[in-house]
Every structure is written in C-alpha cells, then in structure tokens.
Specification:
Chains A, B: Residues 37-154 form the Acyl-CoA dehydrogenase/oxidase N-terminal domain. Chains A, B: InterPro entries: Acyl-CoA_dh-like_C_dom, Acyl-CoA_Oxase/DH_mid-dom, Acyl-CoA_Oxase/DH_mid-dom_sf, AcylCo_DH-like_C, AcylCo_DH/oxidase_C, AcylCoA_DH/ox_N, AcylCoA_DH/ox_N_sf, AcylCoA_DH/oxidase_NM_dom_sf. Chains A, B: Residues 159-267 form the Acyl-CoA oxidase/dehydrogenase middle domain. Two copies of one chain form a homodimer. The first copy, chain A, is an alpha+beta fold. Among the domains of chain A are: 7-152, Butyryl-Coa Dehydrogenase, subunit A, domain 1, CATH 1.10.540.10; 156-280, Beta Barrel (Butyryl-CoA Dehydrogenase, subunit A, domain 2); 449-582. Chain A has helices at 7-17, 32-50, 54-59, 75-84, 103-116, 118-137, 140-152, 280-316, 336-368, 372-407, 419-426, 436-447, 454-472, 478-504, 506-511, 513-534, 540-552, 557-564, 569-572; strands at residues 63-65, 68-70, 156-160, 176-179, 185-195, 205-212, 223-229, 231-233, 239-242, 245-250, 261-274. In chain A, the strands form three sheets. In chain A, strands 3, 4, 5, 6, 7, 10 and 11 form a seven-stranded mixed beta sheet that branches. In chain A, strand 4 and strand 5 (185-195) form a beta hairpin. At the A-B interface, helix 8, helix 9, helix 10, helix 11 and helix 12 of A face helix 8, helix 9, helix 10, helix 11 and helix 12 of B.
Chain lengths: 582, 582
C-alpha cells in the first residue's frame, strides 16, 4: 500500500485550526511559502524513503548481534539521508546549528515521518528530547561538543528513565552515579525500555540518564540527570575509547519491531552531570511536555496511516450490492456503513491533528512571543493541552487502527496486508511517555489548578467564541453549535465538580480521571473540526466531517458527565477476594 | 499467568441472568448438580490442559510441512484428551452419540475453553457447525458414517465458504461441483481462511463446502452444500484412499497462531451433496446462528482472559502512592483509576456473558420447549439476540483486551507478558462468521422486521419488567432504574426511526446500523447486569458492577441516538477525490 503524505491537510490544519498565523511576528522566516515547501519536502521524504522500508522493519526488526544492535534493513541508510537532508535540525536554535523554525512546523513534518514509519520516527524523536535537555540545562562543554552533533543528526540521543521496578514511579529508581573525584561521575545500574538505545546508524549515541548520587535524599528529590556517551569525547569533540555502557538485550515487542528497545547496562560508565544536582526530575519534565506532544502526533500519524490503508482497500475491494447505487458488485466504499466509518476515522484524525498542532503553536508562542502576557497565556494553554494531545490522540490512534483492520475484513487479520502492523504499532502510544492514565491524573491533579483555574477557563472562553461563530454561520453549521455547546457545558460541569472534589476527596476525583480526559478531549476535538469548517476556504468535506463528528461524538459528551462524577463509593469497597482472587 | 476458569460466574450467569431454569422441563437431566459438575470439570480441563499450551501455540504456531499441517506443540494430544473426556458431544443428540444437554451449558463450557486457548477452541467450534449441518440436513449415510465420528471427536469438521473474491459476498463464489455420474460430485476450486482445514490430531477431517453445480442459477440461489472428507469412507465407515483435497498454504496471521488457517485446494475431490440442491446457503444459515453465538462467547472469553491477566498484574505490581491508603509503594489495584478500569472491564464481561448465555437458552427453548408458543417466542429472541451476542461481545473482547494491555503499562507491550497475545487473538472475533458490520445490517435489515416487529417489542417488554423490579428494589439500585429506562427509551426511539426509514430510505437506515447495534447492545448489557444484581443471592459485587456500568455506559446511551438517526446526507456526497485520493 502506498502512503500519501497528508501535506494539504497539515497545511490546512496549521493555518485554519492551529492559528499558525499567530507565529508570524516571532518566526518571520516561517512564511507561507516556507511552510509549504518544508511540508512538501518532508512529505516526499516520508513517502519515498521511509514508507517503503516500514514493512521490512516490522518483519526483520532490529537485531542484537555480538553485543551491538544491527538496525532493521535500510534503516541506517535512511537515517543518514534523513540527517543529511536537515530533518533533525528544523526547530533547533541557530546557536547550535538548527534552522530556528517553529516547533509546530516540526510536529507537522514529524507526523508524516511517524505515519510513514513509526519505528524509524522514534529515533529522531528521542534525539529531540536530548537536544532540548542540553539546550536548556547543558554545560558549555555539552553545548559545544554534543549539541551540534545531535542537531545535525550525526549522533543520536536517548532518554534512560525506566528501571524494572520504576516505570511510572520514578521515585523508585536505583541507578547510582558516584563522583569519580575528577569532576565526573561513574554510573552503575540497569535501565529498561530504552528506545534506540543502540544502533549502527551513527558513530556515537548520547545517553541522558536519571540516577541517584550517594547520600542524596530519597524519592524524586534525590535524582539527578547525567550524560553518558557511547563513545567518550574530549573537549575538542574528538572521539576516544568506548564507554562502559552495554546492551543487555532487546525486547520482543508487540509492534515497532524496527525500533530497538534496549536493556542498557551502565557498568561503571563515565558520566557528566546535566543541570543541577538533585534537579534531574525537574529537568526531565522540561523535555517531557515536548515528548508527550510528539507521542500525541504519533497517535495522529498511525491513525492517518491506518485510515489511508483502509480507504484504499475500500476503493479496490468489491463485495455485495450498494444500497445507494444498486450496482453489483460494489466497492466497499459504496456501502453506507463502511463509508460512515471511514468519515468518522477521518474526523477523529483531523481533530487529533488540530489538538496536537494547537499545542505546538502554544509552545512556540510560550517560547518566542514578544510580550510577556502572550507568553504566559500560551504557556498555560500548552500545559493544559499536552495531556489531552498525548492521551486523546493516542487513544484515537488505537481506535482508528482497529477500525482499519475491521474494514479489511478477513484480509485485515493477515499480516501481509499491513493493516495489522498499524494495529500492533499503535498500541504502544497510549503507554509510553507517561501512560494515558498518568496523563489523566496530570490533567486533574496539576493542570486544572494552573493559574487558579485560568488555563481551563481560557480554553472554554475560546471554545465559546467558536460556538458563537457557528451560530452565525451558514444554516448547515448551526445545529452543530448546539452540540458543541452542550458538550462544553458538560465539560464545565465536570470541571467544576472535579475542582471541588480535588480539594477534599482526591480519590473521588481520581476515579473519574480517565473519563474526564475523554470528555474534555472529545469536546476540544469538536472545537478543532468547527474551526476547520468555519475557515473561509474550507471545502465541503470540512462541514461533513464536523457534522458526522457532532452527531457521533459530541452528542455523547453530556452523557459522559455521569462517569466523571461517579466517585469512588462503588470501587473503594471492592476486594480482590470479591473478584474471585484468593 | 495462571488462568482461573470462571466457574462460579458462569453458574451464576446461567441461573440468575440467562434463566437457565426455564429449561428444566425440556432438559430434566440438566439439573443443578449436573450443571455444577459439568462446569467444574470443564474448568479443570481448560485451566490445567489447555491454558498451559496457549503461549506455545502462539509462539510456534501450526506449521505446513510437506503438504500437511503439523499442529502447534501439545495441541494434538490435548485435542485427543478433549474428545476422550466427552467435551465434543455435550449438546449433540443421543441419536448420534451425544449427551443431549442444553446448548446453553455447552456455550458456558466452551467459553472457558476459548478463554484458556482460543486457537485450540476453534477446532471443536468448527466441528459443532458440521455436526449441526449433518444432523439437520445429512443423508442416512452422513448420519451413520460421519456424524457419530464428529460427535465423539474422533474426526473434526470444517466449513469451507470463503474464496478470494467471495468473503461477505457468498453470491460471488465459483467453486464447482460437477456430477460424477455415480450419484456423487467432483469438487474443483479454491477456498481460503479455512480454520483447522488440516491438522494431525485426528485420522480424518470432514469438510463441508459451498459450491455451484453446472447450469445452476447465478448468485446465492445456485449454491449447494457438499461434504468432502480428507480420507474417503465407505458405507460401513471404513477409511480408504485419500481424497483430492490439498492444503495450498497457511496464512500468517495477527493472532490465533495455534489455529491453522488454510488455503484449501479441491482438485477433483469426491464430494456428496448435503441437503437439497441449490439450498446450500439456506442450509449454511441454519448453522450460522449457532456459529455466531459461539464467536460471541469467544469475545466474552478473550475479555475474561485479558481481565484476569490485568487483575493479577494489578495485584502484583507496586508503583506509586495510593490516594486511598497513602501507602507507598502501592499495588496498581489500589489506584482509583486502575480499579475503576478493572471494574468496568468486569462489568462488560458479565454483560456479554449474560447476552450470550441468554441467546443460548433461547435457542434451547426454541428447539425443545414443549409448547409451540414458547418455541416460537424463543426462536424470535434467539434470532434477535444473535447479531448482538456476536458483535457486541466481540467488540467488548477487543476493547477489554486493549485495556488489559494498558493496565500492564510498558510490560503489556512485551510479548513475554502475555497480554499482547490476547490483544492480537481478540482482533479476529469482530471479523469472522460475518463481520460486525454484517451483524448490524442483519439486525436492522432482517431482525427488526421479525414477526412484524414483535421480536424487538417482546425484548423491550422484558427489559421494562426488570426496570420495574429495580424501582421496587433496595435504594442503592433505584437510580439505576432511571439510567436503564432512559437507555431503553432511546432504544425504542432508534428502533422506531429505523423501522420507518427501512421502508423508504434504506441507505439512511444502513448508515446508522453499527451505531444502532451498539446502542441496543449497551442497553441489553445493562439489563443483564440488572438481572444479576436483582438475584436473591447476589453478592455486593453485582450491585457495584451494575452501578459502574450504569454511570459509565448506560448514561451515554441516550446520546447515541443522534448517531443512529444521522442518515446518509453527509456521506452520500463524499467522493474519494474529496478525501484526497486521485
């Protein structure tokens, strides 16, 4: 199946949904022509270089041979071409060799990369996290020796957080960093689930590692961030001996087989402190928002890929008589139930895309807007939307990939068809970079309280503006205004209930965390589609997608309030014994 | 992970949800002690013999070697033990060597088999279809030579329907059956997706094959049903030469690797007509209801397996601080969001189980009730519930298997954990034996019209009786009555709209087919849980499950009406070009 990079849809979403135009002052070089040219070129690279090796990546995967990882067929060469073409440096600062373009444009290009080949896309995605960490917290040496190599893509980066006993719970990690008496540290410990922890696409790999120092306070307050490169590098950037970092094994995973997921063994590895001692978790969280948004875009991406595959199949496969045309045999596309499903898939993709790109535009404004007020408001918006972008979009990824299999019928269950790979690949996205349950807890535990509730109040004000615009628009859009308004009212009620319970009965609030994230995400998704349909140059499809979404998704939002406000009374009393476990 | 056969839950569901007691007159031998003993023994077999070989079945799978299929490790021996223990003959007629027990009890036992090892369970499941076909439509020779061997499990059966160009669309099939001049037929053609089409667990395999005869009318009216055994058998039951049936290949599938999915090549195979010429599709549909119900039970089963695995993990894995107890580290089970998810999984499983077992009890009554009126009413109920049992339960299977992965966090994505296998295995159930889209079309196209709408009216009357009982019950159940009533009212509105549209604008009705099946299924599922909670001996858990389901699922049902009644206006105009396909 060929992959068509959704260049037009991304350009539309940037301009008419995510308000990319607000970045004009801060990023004057990101004008319309540049955006179009960047998207077009990224689309060509994704569809012509990365998509063709996706299936081999799944079939053959990465291999551990004699202690080193051999990348899946074609991946190392593709990575080199990717770096040479400048795709690793798009949004990095020109101070470190980057192109200084907005993150929103980077997210748009990477969405196409992830859609073409998610296992591949993880490699540059992890490097971006390392770039962000070193740009914000690195020493002069880090910025002169390591950062330019990461920005140019000559080297790649990794994030080493998880240990067997410490997944969502970073406080439990035990990897030790002992001062070596020469200003450095010696790392000892085991990290698991390290994405692209080793490979043969570059000469060096920059590992960022969370670890404890001796006598550090217990819990998250005793954790610091360290840099340990695969090959040691002197201050002039010259590579020397190998470091004592070893790959202990590769995981056998459900999907993304082309992405080597490593057990990393630090056995006295030389390491350097990044940022301040005992501030490792805080430093790590400064990159976390960006990483979570990237994963949200992956959810959108895998949904786009699965949708395209299902759409193509529905146009080729003939089966049965169409209730519309009476023709026999008819394309699956000409059966009402199938076409409705395809439209709903497409609507959810556009909603998720809009959420992720809006979050990215907020991040760019928070970083680069001229006035403090705009930066502060944008920061609130970025923080509020990030858990929704991550969790809601990745849930859409899994759902749409599953519908994609379904539209294929029996062929969808056969691996050669390709739909099954998307279903397998998609399943990691609600898990990594903080499970979607963690995102929901973050949303009600931290984000609802931001600026005393101003973050969520601002969001709702903006949605109300769009509802007014829908009411004033052409007749075909006015019924949607009621749907979106009812959804927003439910979101407001749910928020008020949670804010009240948060303060005095946290378990009640936490019991409805996932339900709340879905309720708010469904509502924000409808807002995104409404903005698209209201755009002056919107094609008929934008209104059709909005109406299908309004009746299929928004109409169910008020009914979700009950799940948010159910509280914990019926679950607190349930024991394992009552569930049959003895 | 160990599998605990849900013997107590099944016994409870049979008695208090599915009204198994109504079978007392027709099946006097199926008394309480017998039911308990059968469930207990099946549970032991499933958990001790079948569950332990499930992972090897997935890892190694069935293999094609020198033209014959070698079963996955341990499967052939397990099958022999399964047959020797009498599990293939439970509900077959004593006329053919069966035990004559109710199908509802058979479904309950097979649910445990499917949960323990779905790839294995498919083998006896397909034999049941062949048994049903031959018992209803076979010649004396079929009944004396083949049927007893299928009932005893000495041989297995297959159903050969699908061809590359004919999946959901049987009218398109082209396999030819040419009279051989001696009263028999010669079969030529290729069938695909043939479950357990070949294996080494028995000496012979009985293939039932849909094919056309020369000069038959086109379309489904020209299709007949044939029997072609792997090894030819004379009238005394003596096996002779091999037949010209060959395995052309095995599919490489997303899941159920232990189940050989064969391309079958009939190359002049000797075959015998089953039933009447050109009545093949009608004969096939007499077994189809039973097969669809079996798949629904598979959906329940894989959800049960995935839920148990997630529950066990949530009790073993400690991570973070519980908002309830303040203890650190706490079990995942002690985090409110996780426990809510587990309860919702369990509630959906019990709802699906109730629907499947209720359908089976209706089938038993339709077959064996003493009076004609009961049989007729039960037949309507069986026909109406079958697409819901198949589609709703298998959607629950996929959803719960996905939640099961999610609860494991990163470990869920690692194949060794086992959760991923359930996610892969589950995905076939919404597809085979008629995709869930086909079930939805069957529901609105055929089932709503049954007895002029009496089938659905009767169902709603029964649900109303339970709503009245909820209103009269203890205070903790009365709020649920409003939720179930609102859901039922929405179901009634949706039904009325569809019945009106069906008659004059079928594409409008078809556009909402899947949405309607979900709406009605969610409602019927709530009814099942309500019956359980109202049972005199119900434990507290039954009320807890009902309330979680009522607020999380039933509360959203009224909002689903909009998706049912949206019509086709916004999709009929959408072209592939508007979706970016050129």
């Amino acid at each position: 199946m060929t992959f068509r990079a959704p260049v037009r849809d991304l350009a539309f979403a940037l301009r008419h949904v995510a308000d990319f135009g607000r970045l004009a002052d801060a990023y004057p070089e990101a004008d319309a022509d540049t955006v179009d040219a960047v998207l077009e070129a990224a689309g060509v690279f994704a569809s012509e270089v990365l998509a063709p090796i996706n299936r081999q990546g799944d079939l053959v995967g990465a291999k551990l041979e004699n202690g080193v990882v051999r990348s899946a067929p074609g991946f190392a060469d593709a990575y080199k071409a990717f770096a040479e073409a400048g795709w690793t440096s798009l949004a990095a600062s020109p101070d470190h060799g980057g192109q200084g373009l907005p993150k929103a444009l980077e997210i748009a290009t990477l969405e196409m990369v992830q859609a073409a080949n998610m296992a591949f896309g993880l490699c540059p995605m992890l490097s971006l996290g390392a770039i962000e960490a070193l740009a914000l917290h690195g020493t002069d040496r880090h910025k002169s020796v390591f950062l330019p190599k990461l920005v140019s893509g000559e080297w790649t980066g990794t994030m080493n957080l998880t240990e067997p006993q410490a997944g969502s719970d970073l406080a439990a990690l035990t990897t030790m960093a002992t001062p070596d008496g020469q200003g450095g540290y010696t790392l000892s410990g085991q990290k698991i689930f390290i994405t692209w922890g080793d490979h043969d696409a570059t000469d060096n790999i920059v590992h960022l590692v969370l670890a404890r120092t001796p006598d550090a306070p217990p819990g998250v307050k005793g954790i610091s961030l360290f840099l340990a490169s695969k090959v040691l590098v002197d201050d002039e950037g010259k590579m020397g001996a190998g470091n004592d970092v070893r790959v202990g094994g590769l995981e056998h995973k459900l999907g993304i087989h082309g992405s080597p997921t490593c057990v990393m063994l630090f056995e006295g590895a030389k390491a350097e402190l990044v940022g301040k001692l005992h501030q490792g978790v805080a430093h790590m969280f400064t990159m976390m928002n960006a990483a979570r948004l990237q994963v949200g875009a992956q959810g959108t991406a895998i949904a786009e890929r699965a949708y395209q595959q299902a759409l193509n199949f529905s146009l080729e496969r003939v089966q049965g008589r169409s209730a519309w045309t009476g023709a026999y045999p008819s394309r699956l596309f000409d059966h009402p139930d199938v076409r409705r499903t395809l439209l709903l898939m497409k609507a959810k993709i556009e909603a998720a895309r809009g959420i992720c790109l809006s979050t990215a535009v907020a991040a760019d404004l928070a970083h680069a807007a001229a006035d403090e007020e705009t930066r502060a408001a944008a920061k609130l918006r970025e923080e509020l939307l990030t858990p929704i972008a991550k969790a809601w979009s990745t849930d859409v990824g899994v759902e749409v990939a599953s519908l994609g299999v379904q539209i294929h019928g029996g062929m969808g269950f056969i691996e050669e068809t390709g739909a099954a790979q998307h279903y397998r690949d998609a399943r990691i996205t609600p898990i990594y970079e903080g499970t979607n349950g963690i995102q929901a807890i973050d949303l009600i535990g931290r984000k609802l309280g931001l600026a005393d509730g101003q973050a969520v109040a601002d969001l709702m004000d903006d949605i109300r503006d769009t509802i007014e615009a829908l009411k004033a628009a052409e007749a075909s859009l006015t019924p949607v205004a009621s749907r979106l308004e009812a959804a927003l009212n439910a979101a407001a009620s749910a928020t008020a209930w949670l804010v009240e319970r948060r303060a005095r009965a946290m378990p009640d609030a936490l019991s409805g965390a996932t339900a709340y994230l879905k309720l708010l995400g469904d509502t924000v998704g409808g807002w995104m589609l409404a903005k698209g349909a209201l755009a002056p140059e919107a094609e008929a499809l934008r209104g059709q997608l909005l109406r299908v979404y309004a009746e299929s998704v928004l109409a169910q939002v008020p009914g979700q309030l009950a799940a948010v406000t159910l509280g914990d009374a019926d679950i607190v009393a349930v024991t394992p014994e009552a569930l049959g476990v003895h």
